[in-house]
Amino acid sequence: MFYLDFIRAVALVAILIIHFNATVTGYFTLPHKLFASVLPFGIYLGDFGSSLFFIVSGAALALTVSEKQGWLTFYKKRAKAIYPLFWLAWIVCFSIRFVTKPGYYAAAKTPTLLLTVLGLDNFAVAAGWVGTDFACVGEWFLGSILFLYLLFPLLQRGLKRNPWITWICTLAVCLPIHLSGVDAHLVAIHVIEFLFGMQYLRWNKKVKAVLVPFLAVGTVALSGYDSKVTCALFSMMIFILLEGVSSFLDYPWPRAICGKAAKLSYAVFLVHHVLIQSMAEHFDLAALSRRDTAFLFLVYLVAVWAAAETLLWLQRFVQKEFAALRPAKE
């Protein structure tokens, strides 16, 4: 579906912009030169991009995963889709950082390597499980999506049997967890967004049209109460509107561009932050002009694209080499 690729591309742009902006402003201690970091109603651009990704992920899985597929099969396929590329990116980036910045990981405890192997390193730091670990690629987002993958078969079965009960139970469990902060606001609210994406494909145009004003009112009414809840409502509303906008862009070139962005999105997600951090080290950020910031942003986009393509090529090469090592069947 073109609109899912289109929305994934919008989310990707939001994530690229916010991490670029955070880095070149010294994590918001310097004035913004190109982009704002906050959307209307005080919504953080990074939260908005992440929320769109969670919604798209739910919709994409609901579209592609058969209800007859077993839980174990689903988990195996998700692991194959997530871990090989993550481990490959981590090995490359860790090796470069370890050699070029001796002592960078001196404070990291060796047992936290297990968090890295599981893809939970950045999530663990964001959640406060550890202060320093071996994280070098990806974001907290990866750990959150892994928890959502664990819940997907249960949510899928619930939606099939009784959508209303599934929604009531999800809200009754997730909202108190989120508001209490037990999950460091990294999982519970995103379960609701994920479920929205899963349910979205079952709704017709009339239901979606009715939802938009309700989500808009909720966004305004809850603005200033809880930024994550506000962001979730706002992102759901924008998701519906972007599907509408996509119908006007459904031509070969936009399809090709958004399809490419969707294909590269995971690889980009893994490498983009470490790249802009490395680039920014060569500049006096306080003295960086608006023009040079714009140049840096363009170089950053090209570098991220090249790195993502290279990473995917390297994955294919490694897979080919491993396949060649396997003994041929008699």
What would your notes on this structure say?
- α1 (2-24) runs antiparallel to α2.
- Strands 1-2 form a two-stranded antiparallel sheet.
- The protein is built from twelve helices and two strands, in the order αββααααααααααα.
- The protein is an all-alpha fold and 330 residues long.
- It is 73% helix and 1% strand.
- The chain has one domain.
Query: Roughly what is the average pLDDT, rounded to an integer?
Result: 92
Largest sheet: 2 strands, antiparallel
Strand order, largest beta sheet: 1-2
- Sketch the topology as an H/E string, one letter per element: HEEHHHHHHHHHHH
In whole angstroms, the N-to-C terminal distance is 42 Å
The level of helicity is: over 70%
Described by its quaternary structure, the protein is single chain
Rg over CA atoms, rounded to whole Å, is: 21 Å
- Shape estimate: globular
Structural class: mainly alpha
Q: Indicate the low-confidence ranges by residue numbers.
A: none
How many helical stretches?
12
- Give the DSSP E fraction (strand runs of 2 or more residues): under 5%
For the record, the count of structural domains works out to: 1
Number of DSSP strand runs: 2
